[in-house]
Amino acid sequence: VQLVESGGGSVQAGGSLRLSCTASGSHFDSHGMGWFRQAPGKEREGLSCISNTGDTTYYADSVKGRFTVSRDNAKNTLFLQMNNLKPEDTAMYYCATRPFPNCAGSSWGVATLYQYWGQGTQVTVSS
């Protein structure tokens, strides 16, 4: 499985970006998918997870109400709509696959529970 993120860039505070993560290989619709980010000098932070069917989603408190995760299984693509961006959202953003259809419940944000990772896309938010 290969994951390729896109859609990052530089925006001013209050702006929006939509990240995409396209997966190669088969059975995209059999895996839960997550979004993470990592800023320089900080640990990787779980942002959101979506189950294989899209009927269950999880969000970190830091992005709840501003970010929305979705997926298009027909196009093997995961999305993260990011609104009202803040300077503290500046980071490298990664998508990752779960080895199972679900998001691991309350452990959804644990990076070691994800199997494959993309190379990341940079998001920079200026004040």
Description:
With 127 residues, the chain is an all-beta fold. Helices cover 0% and strands 45% of the residues. It contains no helices and eleven strands. The strands form two sheets. Strands 2, 4, 5, 6, 9, 10 and 11 form a seven-stranded mixed beta sheet that branches. A four-stranded antiparallel beta sheet has the order 1-3-8-7, with no helix packed on it. The model has no long low-confidence stretch (mean pLDDT 97).
Number of strands: 11
Which structural class is indicated by helix and strand composition? mainly beta
Give the H and E element order: EEEEEEEEEEE
Q: What proportion of the residues form beta strands (DSSP E)?
A: 35-45%
Average per-residue pLDDT, rounded, comes to 97
Task: Describe how the helices and strands are arranged.
Blueprint: E1 3-6, E2 9-12, E3 17-23, E4 33-38, E5 45-50, E6 57-59, E7 67-72, E8 77-82, E9 91-97, E10 116-117, E11 121-126
Parallel strand pairs: 2-11
Antiparallel strand pairs: 1-3, 3-8, 4-5, 4-9, 5-6, 7-8, 9-10, 9-11
